[in-house]
Amino acid sequence: MNKEKIVIGLSGGVDSSVAAYLLKKEGYDVIGVFMINWKENTGSLTAGCTWEDDVTFAEMIAKKLDIPFHVVDLSDSYRKRVVDYMFSEYEKGRTPNPDVLCNREIKFDLFMDKASELGAQYVATGHYCRRGEVNIEGKLYYRLLAGTDPNKDQSYFLCQLNQDQLSRSLFPVGHLLKPEVREIARQQGLITAERKDSQGICFVGKVDLPVFLQQKLASKKGNVIEIDASFMEKKALPLIPENFPKLCSPFPFKPWNGKIVGEHNGAHFYTIGQRKGLNIGGYVEPLFVLATDVVRNIIYVGEGKDHPGLFRQGLFIPGEDMHWVRTDMTMSAGEERDFLIRIRYRQPLEKGRITMTSEGAYILFEREQRGITSGQFAAWYLDDELIGSGIIA
Questions:
Q1: What is the DSSP-derived secondary structure letter of residue 43?
Q2: Is residue 102 flagged as an active site residue?
Q3: Does this model's pTM top 0.85?
Q4: Hey, what CATH topology would domain 5-126+172-208 get?
Q5: Which of 77, 163, 281, 323 is the most exposed place for a label (fewest CB within 10 A)?
Q6: Rg, Å, the chain Cα set
Q7: In 95-208, which ranges are E strands?
């Protein structure tokens, strides 16, 4: 029997419950730990489960599996490392991904420290992804691989993990399909078998984002300017280095070619591609946010989901915001390499090329991408392995 000690992050959901069961079945010395990362209800929709509900389910699973159970309160660190970062990014007119930050800063950092205090060698989670290993010239590298279930692959959310974090991580359900996970839970009589998956921000739940942001970001009236598709001057440019900045610009139109069609309560409350919350009628198709200018407090919108202002050829990631999971594949200035790339969770992988410069990385796609958003993470893959990621400028 394998007696290595492992801490499993029990969230009160079916995935972590089955992960805990599988680990114990394999003979590991399993300890269940629930993380409290958010205690407030301000800005949250009460329709979702609160952490009090989740911890009750997690404790019941631990009792069912006959494993020790602990609760750790990481809410102060979560506020400083994740929530404060969110506010700061939105204030700058960027759209952060708190789930990626939560995994990098909390679940696979502070939580790992807590696991070490309990004498555990590894931390396990219910993420749908897999860990692999490869030996290159005598050095071992850990691989972050997509989950087997194409509808549940969560490798994107772990795109900021490093080699040390991966070396101490296990993903017991990564090789399973979601229906298989639920069936295992039913067979074992786990109370979470039919429980709905959590929604919304990592460990916070479903959030009314404008209400949440108004805790720190003040409302400020500003103009909504419509950019008619006929004003778009998107000429096909050759994919050569001197054109990269224009091809990757977040403003693929001339802002002065628009007309005022309404008011908003603060440009920092909106994000590219957003449709809801504009409250402007009189159009055949819905209006979508094309861009925001938090300095001048302006929102630019366009009619229809296929408005050309929603699409662009590429994006830029500053050098300081580049991260390589596979450190042996780090690119240097002047290098080019083809990858499969996604710019948001659940987006199909798209073919693209990364060109490194002294300032950072330009990513040009084979076909234009809709809704490239500053502050989000772009992640690049080779086949089913996540190689690196970066914050979109």
A1: T
A2: yes
A3: yes
A4: Rossmann fold (3.40.50)
A5: 281
A6: 22
A7: 122-124, 129-136, 139-146, 169-170
